[in-house]
Design brief:
Bound molecules: (2R)-2-hydroxypentanedioic acid, zinc ion
CATH class of one domain: Alpha Beta
Helix content: 25-40%
Largest sheet: 8 strands, antiparallel
Distance between the termini: 21 Å
Strand content: 15-25%
CATH architecture of one domain: 2-Layer Sandwich
Shape: globular
Structural class: alpha+beta
Number of helices: 16
CATH topology of one domain: Alpha-Beta Plaits
Number of strands: 19
Length: 477
């Protein structure tokens, strides 16, 4: 085995240069970190190609050697999609990081997979355009990872998931061939939509090396508001009114429970209460944006909030008066993920249900979790405008963290059952990775799994591309 590995490492080095094949533990460590500490990752080596041609040669070589590959971006995913074992080669795309072009007339940009998401957002702004994909890890995640997991984030409400932002793709297929599907057409009605089988495939069907992304007018006038409400049904009524009364200008409509914001106040020094001295059960962070001369978002927000207040839908609201205040509101929202780390271990759920069932979903999951693990603390928050709730649970104060973690699948199974019974999905925006393959067997029909299996075996008959991810193992062997 050692000889085989050394030989493959040498062959990889002949493609990328020796310094771009990492074998030393100190150098590979960064690529083996797993954000939630749920999975151990190892690797035979990490290879860092600098061009599509190098990616293609690497894949061709691995196919010949029957060598498993784990494609990797910024390694910020939360379902273990980029986790590797000791026999696999990690192909990290970080050196493919060129913005190939920006088209100001067509509102598009062509970018390579290793570009950091935040760099692309800035590049769009430099061209007076807007790339709406935005999520907590944007300072380190790579666009290739976003595409491969079909990432969601805080602007899906208005602009859609990553999938909806893609016009064209370039992909290195499992046999090493390159599919150049880099068109920038809004209309291209020519048979199967191939790009969509690679988006969300988490590297199981090939390695995405570049994409043409849609851009938008920059919403220079933004209006952010923190709203206090009594109940989840009120949040839903508010959401429906927001859509109608602001002419669908809302880009984000985020829900946070009191438990969430209190934890942020406790642990994150720069988070403060927008309603000092007043305790409310639920909060909504709403943002509208427009690019009109002079701006209409703030006015729309003011009028709409006044009416909602008069009708008793909202309890209180603070409208950000400047960019700084808007940023503080967003800091509170983002802090909810971070502060859970200070509360001990947490069991995470990322589910979606039809909007009309959200209130029932939250009620049922809170009471189920509390009866399964007395003393557990429920952090219910998320992109409620998308029907996407992160129902996360922090360990009871008097319980051992490992014993709590052992309950992961018992609890998430229950949460997924409730979501399913309400017409929902067990993965709203984080994907499948290693974490949720068992749910694929449980909730996908045989017909659906058979179609996926046929696609997988047609493109990757030797199962070298990210084996064991997305589809339950056993299905592709
Ligand atoms: C968010 O919306 C993330 O803040 C949640 O998607 C990530 O729960 C997490 O770890
Ligand atoms: Zn989220």
């Amino acid at each position: 085995m050692r000889n085989r590995n050394t030989k493959i490492q040498q062959e990889l080095a002949a493609i990328t240069g020796e310094s771009h094949v990492l074998t030393n533990d100190d150098l590979t460590a960064a690529y083996l970190k797993e954000r939630r500490g749920r999975f151990d990752s190892e690797t035979m080596c990490v290879v860092l190609p600098a061009s599509v041609e190098e990616v293609s040669e690497i894949v061709r070589l691995c196919r010949k050697r029957n060598q498993p590959i784990v494609p990797q971006g910024g390694n910020t995913g939360v379902c273990g999609g980029a986790v590797s074992n000791a026999e696999s080669v990690i192909v990290n795309l970080q050196r493919l990081n060129r913005i190939r072009s920006v088209d100001q007339t067509g509102y598009t940009m062509e970018v390579e997979s290793g570009c950091i998401l935040a760099d692309l957002q800035f590049a769009a702004i430099d061209n007076d355009l807007y790339l709406p994909l935005s999520l907590g890890a944007e300072g380190s995640c790579q666009i290739g990872g976003n595409l491969s997991t079909n990432a969601g984030g805080v602007n899906v409400l208005r602009y859609g998931n990553t999938r909806d932002l893609v016009l064209g793709l370039e992909v290195v297929l499992p046999d090493g061939n390159v599919w150049n599907g880099l068109n920038s057409l809004r209309k291209n009605n020519t048979g199967y939509d191939l790009k969509n089988i690679f988006i969300g495939a988490e590297g199981t069907l090939g390695i995405i090396t570049a994409a043409v992304l849609k851009l938008f007018p920059r919403p220079v006038n933004r209006s952010t508001v923190m709203i206090a409400i009594e109940s989840v049904p009120d949040a839903l009524e508010l959401f429906s009114r927001t859509r109608k009364e602001t002419s669908d200008f809302a880009s984000s409509f985020e829900l946070m429970s009191r438990v969430c914001v209190e934890s942020a106040f406790r642990h994150i020094p720069e988070c403060s209460d927008f309603f000092p001295g007043r305790v409310y059960p639920w909060y909504v962070l709403l943002e509208l944006g427009d690019s009109t001369d002079g701006g209409i978002s703030q006015q729309l927000n003011e009028r709409f909030l006044e009416r909602a207040f008069e009708d008793g839908i909202i309890l209180d609201a603070v409208l950000a008066q400047n960019e700084n205040q808007s940023m503080q509101m967003w800091r509170l929202r983002e802090a909810i993920v971070e502060c859970q780390n200070y509360e001990g271990k947490s069991i995470k759920n990322d589910v979606s249900v039809p909007l009309s069932n959200i209130a029932e979903f939250i009620d049922r999951t809170i009471s189920s979790a509390e009866s399964m693990i007395p003393g557990v603390r429920s952090f219910a928050y998320g992109h409620i405008g998308d029907g996407n709730i992160h129902f996360n649970l922090s360990q009871p104060e008097n319980m051992d963290g490992d014993a709590f973690f052992d309950q992961w699948y018992a609890v998430t199974d229950e949460v997924h059952e409730i979501a399913d019974s309400l017409g929902g999905s067990f993965s709203a925006e984080h994907g499948i990775g290693l974490l949720k393959t068992r749910d694929m067997t449980r909730y996908k029909s045989t017909v659906e799994l058979d179609i996926m299996k046929s696609i997988k075996s047609a493109l990757d008959p030797d199962n070298i591309m990210n084996p064991g991810k997305v589809l339950p193992s056993g299905l592709c062997d």
